[in-house]
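Project standup — Tuesday

K.O.: blocked on the structure for the chain from last sprint. Re-posting the sequence here as requested.
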Amino acid sequence: QVQLVESGGGSVQAGGSLRLSCAASGRTFNNYAMGWFRQAPGKEREFVAALSVSGGTTIYTKFVKGRFTISRDNAKNTVYLQMNSLKPEDTAVYYCAAKGPMNYSGTYSAVYDYDYWGQGTQVTVSS
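H.V.: unblocked you, prediction finished:
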């Protein structure tokens, strides 16, 4: 089992920045591919960004590419989502997810790919 706890959400004006953190515990974090998803009211959960086990490969939805950066610190069992140039349409609950343990590298963008989920953290961007 892997437990994931997100933090760092909040309210910010358009153009501002936030950094989300996801702390993992329970098993060897190094062997898990990680992802961030978000869900706005009345909408389905959607992919935001993903990171391979090694951290060497990242993918992003086109809606955040160039503004958001996913990274991981395996020594701290933590994955981050740096969000810059935030827009009102980025408003959502953001979820951290883990897939694994993995014996091979890869990045994953589907909700059903992931085995473990955090409880979510609210991000609100005002215009």
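K.O.: great, moving the ticket to review. Residues 70 and 81 are 5 Å apart (CA to CA). The first strand starts at residue 3 and ends at 7.
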